[in-house]
Amino acid sequence: MGESDSLQGKIVKAWSVQPVLVPLYAILLSFIVGGVLIAIIGVNPFEAYWALVRGMVGSPDRVAASIARSVPFVGSALALALAFRAGLFNIGAEGQLLVGGILAAWVGTFSFLADAPGLVAIPTVLIAGAFGGLVWGGVPGVLRARTGAHEVISTIMLNSVALFIVRWIVNSRDPVILRDTAASVPRTEQIADGAVLPQLVDSEPNLHFGLFVMIAVAVVLAFVIARTTFGFEVITVGTNPNAARYAGINVNRIIVSSMALSGAFAGVAAASEVSGTNQFFQPGTFAFIGFDGIAIALLARANPVAILPAALLWGSLLAGAPLMQQEADVSIDVVRIIQAMVLLFVAADAIVRYLFRVRDQGGRHIDATNAGWV
Amino acid sequence: MTGAGVDEVAEQTGTVTSDVGATGRRRLGRRQITGVLFAVLGVILIVAVAPSITSETKSFAFESPPDPLQFSFSPPTLIVAVGVLYLLSAVAAFSPQRFDGWAGRLHLFSAISAVPLIMAIALGLSGSSSTNVTNLLDESLVLATPVALGAMTGLWCERSGIINIGIEGMMLASAGVGFMSFALLGAASSVAWLWVAVLVAILTGGLLALLLAVLSINFGINQIVAGVVINLFALGLTGFLRSEVIVPNGNSKGLSTTEFGVPLLSRLPILGETLFQGKPIHYAMYAVVGLTWLVMFRTAWGLRVRSCGENPHAAETLGIDVITVRYQAVVVGGFIAGMAGAWFSLESQSGFEDNMTNSAGFIALAALIFGKWTPWGAFAGALLFGFARALGSRLQFLQVEIGGFGIPSEFFQSLPFVVTIVVVAGALGRSIAPAAEGQPFRRSK
């Protein structure tokens, strides 16, 4: 360790590619596994991957689409990450997205927003989304703190409850609740023009200002976790609730607030999608975003800043897959397998280190979930 | 392990108030709060609900149409009766402490009587004059099958100290691979190959469980990550197999396991058909639950499994090979998940659809926690869930209306989930996981 204490050692360490090396090798290895699978069904893996890569980054529009696809994942992964840090497993991002999204879409149609400037209307919609997520995430937190009901049970159940409620609100014709009766598919009415997030690139899906919103949220969360009392308390509760209690931390308050805040992240992500991408709410848009958030948060080891590249990898793979299916006739599900493998090899870095002879520097290993389960 | 800590903390900080205060005076505990709730419900039932419900005679049928055994009643009378029962429960909640046992039993009885109550109100509000109760029971049992099996998978893994978030993935992969082998080998039409396919499904579950075991035992990676990897992998793999193998093969539908009745017993009146006639995997579920209990709690090996989940280092000092035991338990769990997968694609229906397990694995996880990591408890959780789902679809079918406003079907569909939350939050409270769960184990040198 003497070496790393010297200035030179510090510089070497700061520029070390080591932390990035393992994930890169992990991605490479995952593509090899996927390639073997593609080869088995009789397609040239290189052709398939070439189509996949072009689908991801083949043109400026495609790059924008890949980024746009990744934006909501940032929110759902942040939701998971904060809960993990507090030792909680929030499987409910799926439901929190739905509730946040429908609330944002509803508030977005309020008549007073029609003439309001964007500076008022956009935050209103985003806050509405955050509030929806906050409530839907806060309920399991309160139940956990007050009655001891396990958050895994309540969040899973609330996912389904949210799905049915939202489906009813959007589908119902008699009575009409929020359904846009003029539209052919069940969806809510268009939100006010002023409440639409500014567009950046007109790709498919379009890239909008929500990107910066999500980056800002990630940076804020990173700051909160690393530099504030609240963040310290969250980590302490997550690592050892008994120690936290002896240190005078109100454990229940931390459980409730981190679950609620976690839901709010998912809610903001949903609101930014409603406001930036579709301008209306449709339940199907959010399918799997919450569940993928689990994987992304774990891939980033619950580090808010690392979630940004992890979500980008996730979103761009999903955005690129259709071209691979179209050109090489390989099922888009290969991408899911690759994603699983990336997560696997990043987590089981011993495999990667062994295969690629990367030495472990013996640095601090941070576990994604602070202590895990129950 | 964190959670267990959190729960202790919750208790110490007094959010879950004990029944008896320091001075010996009774405080408002969980039972008293439930009692107040019952009182409110009882009054509402007697004063508001009963008078507004039609007093036409309605009936519960217990057998199938030609000449069913029926229980006829007038809805308001039944509602008032349940209301009085609830008021009694409320009084019992505040009775002297030595009657606590009776109060608890009365509460349980009151909670169960909510079932006929809901049915009676629904019948009263709908146009139909009768509904078949045994059918409802039958549906509940069938719908509980995959959840109960999934919960047993979780039980085996988690009691040995390995968290299994991947139940969903194991079930999905077994469903997909099982049906694929049936389509490829037996063209989805031969009974012999059907059973081979069920076997393949079971083995697939075991194989994925082996993956979970290798990752979490040998590589010591975070077990939640390992489970999520399995879920993602299964989702991708089955989607891939469906579009690349099953669909091109053309046999995307075919045979499924058929009902059979236990001789004699299935001809018993009323419950005979419900309990003694059904499909094989559904029956196997009962056996799995029973055997799980028997092996886990009545054999030396079961004790070893549990000790590995509670304190692996102590188990090791007693000469137990923790790693081997954990491997065995996890793979047994995987076989059970494979059965659940076969239920989806080879029994409940014949064919495979993307994501056809539709979070049954997560619900199984909830049932496991609901049952506090015990076989019968988890089974009860699965039954509760299956029943709430069957009831939901029944009520949806009855087209209940209040003042001309049809209650949306989504309301009934979400019923099972709401019921689960209420039961978990209201009655069960905290569950404590096996102590050593989630911690990688290293052999002492």
Q: Which features does this protein show?
A:
heterodimer, A: about 375 residues, mainly alpha, ABC transporter involved in vitamin B12 uptake, BtuC, two-stranded antiparallel ribbon, 16 helices, about 0% strand, disordered C terminus, B: about 450 residues, 2 domains, about 70% helix
Please summarize what this structure is.
The complex is a heterodimer of chains A (374) and B (445). Chain A is 70% helix and 1% strand.
Please describe what this structure looks like:
Chain A is an all-alpha fold and 374 residues long. Chain A is 70% helix and 1% strand. Chain A has helices at residues 2-5, 7-14, 18-40, 45-57, 60-85, 93-108, 118-147, 151-171, 210-227, 229-239, 241-246, 251-278, 289-299, 304-328, 333-347, 349-356, and strands spanning 199-201, 207-208. In chain A, a hairpin with a 5-residue loop joins β1 and β2 (207-208). In chain A, α6 crosses α12, α10 crosses α12 and α15 (333-347) packs across α16 (349-356). The model of chain A is unreliable at 370-374 (pLDDT under 50). With 445 residues, chain B is mainly α. Chain B contains 18 helices and seven strands. The longest helix of chain B is centred in the middle third of the chain and has 28 residues, at 191-218. Chain B has two domains: 13-125, no CATH class; 136-395, ABC transporter involved in vitamin B12 uptake, BtuC (Orthogonal Bundle), CATH 1.10.3470. Helices cover 68% and strands 4% of the residues of chain B. The chains are: A mainly alpha (374), B mainly alpha (445). At the A-B interface, α7, α8, α10, α11 and α12 of A face α1, α9, α15, α17 and α18 of B.
